[in-house]
Amino acid sequence: MSHCVFDTFTIHCPRVGLLSCLQMGADRLRKGLLTLSVFGVGLIALLYWGRLEDLQTAIRIRKPRVADSLWTWACEAQHCVRREPRGDRISLATCRMMCGAVPLWPRPTGVADFGLQSVPFRLLVLRLEVRSSQVRRLLEQAFDVFRGNLESLVPDSSTEDPGGRSLSEFVVSVEVYSADRDPLLTLGTNESYLLVVRHTGAGKLRADVRAQTFFGARHGLETLSQLVWWDDSTLRVLTSAHIRDAPSFPHRGVLLDTGRNFLPLRALRAAVDGLAASKLNALHWHISDSHSFPFDSPHVPSMVRHGAYSPDETYSTRDVADLVAYARVRGVRILVEVDAPAHAGNGWQWGRNLSLCLNRQPWNVFCEEPPCGQLNPDSERVYSVLGNLYLDLVYLTNVTDMFHVGGDEVNLHCWAIELGGQIAHQELMAKWGKFQQLLEAATGGVLPSAVVLWSSQITSSHYAHMYLEPRVYVIQTWSASSGQELLQAGYRVILSHRDVWNLGCGFGFGNIHGACAAVASWQTVYQHRPWSELELRALVLGGEACLWGETVDEHSLDARLWPRASAFGERMWTDPEGDDLTLREAHGRLAVQRERLVARGIRADALWPQWCDQNPDDCLEPLETS
After folding, report:
1. Quick check: pTM over 0.85?
2. Of 219, 343, 497, 528, which is the active-site residue?
């Protein structure tokens, strides 16, 4: 076999001459070189575009925000208007704070005077002055929260650059007049405060917070945090303010349900942060339902073993105590509800006949939603278990003036079938009435001054006077009616009208049309003011916005709550008389409040397109003119 060698290519040519062999080798070499050239060009292009992409990424990281460099904002007719810069630039954040109403949320109920000047500062010049030794530790913790809220305004990638005119000292002085060394929030707590911000010398600013109680002082710190904003490269604060403020209602709550879908402790803490930002003062924790029982009760450990979705989806006594302490520093108390006698199923199956109709089908015959479960009113052990659960919860929460015993949606047919068939309606109602005397076992024979019960058949005018003492019972009314009958009968009420303040409505659970009315917008939540038509308003303790858990978990919680619960917060704190002008003004302030929530790590829902943030007045419907 003859062959020829051409450079690194070996050509085997058994039947051709040398000349032909050489010609074939040259052709092969040209093809090889062409292949190498194409490969090399491709490799160079790949490396080039990769480097270019890296360069573009670096440019994107380093370049300033276009909105900051292209626009300035001018205050015209009490509105911020976007303009091209012609000299010194004013940021949108600064314009919003200095133009029109200062965007506090909720709006103060009393005196609210503000200066027209602001000054930059660094966080390191902040200093706390405590003038109340009896609650020093609580005030120091509240100041840490305040400082953390200011830190949240500073973008992660930013370095503070306040320039030469910044403060050298920013003193926050807090004084609480009450001598109580271990204050607890109650329905009678004075939550008012006075906040005065003033210059005390060149480069020195002082904020004085004065309050009767720690909880009022905490609200004052929240308001002070809202007088601070991020101005592109630095924090700024108003240099003059005088605010007297107090809530319109003593009970301002949000209900969260962890019985349907478990919510981890971090989600509950975030909810407390949002409540504090809107000066709401109660987290009504519907901790269990017929679906699950996640509370690990020291007195009744069998409940969680049979009722938790998994070992990782439980609340220990430490979890509850930690949440209570976390909330207290933020001016919020935890009101825990173990619903009874209905909505009590899974978790109760460890004891014989504790729960009736457990997981029965067809469910719509025995309960309002699956799975069914309702406590046995004839079982003495039921009362013993409930008493032990109540003891645990009262001890852990330190809420002694108020207790929620549930009482929602009792199904009398379930009792009639399970307890022997033909039982008269009146006798079934008497069994239900027996449940309303359980709390004495948990409180050493002393009932709280406010035992809260959901509105239901037993709170109707026919039965209420038979089983419910008005001096003890508070009725939380969730029906669309106003509650006037209850007020006239002498009952105190908490309003939670489901057609407006049920934040879970409209998401499609229960039946083909959803479990209740359509989703309520923040405007609908904000404008609902039922007491304006009620007599005996003094008996209205306040209200709660409810977020039941059928279609809510930790991933959807923030957006369902906020900013609608913030709108509810201003209704409860300020209770402004509504008109179109009030709603327009509130819209702009709520947009700023939503930004605060997002800065604090709360994934609040969007209010409008981003363009409207920069052109707020142009996005609102024009006012009607006569």
Report:
1. yes
2. 343
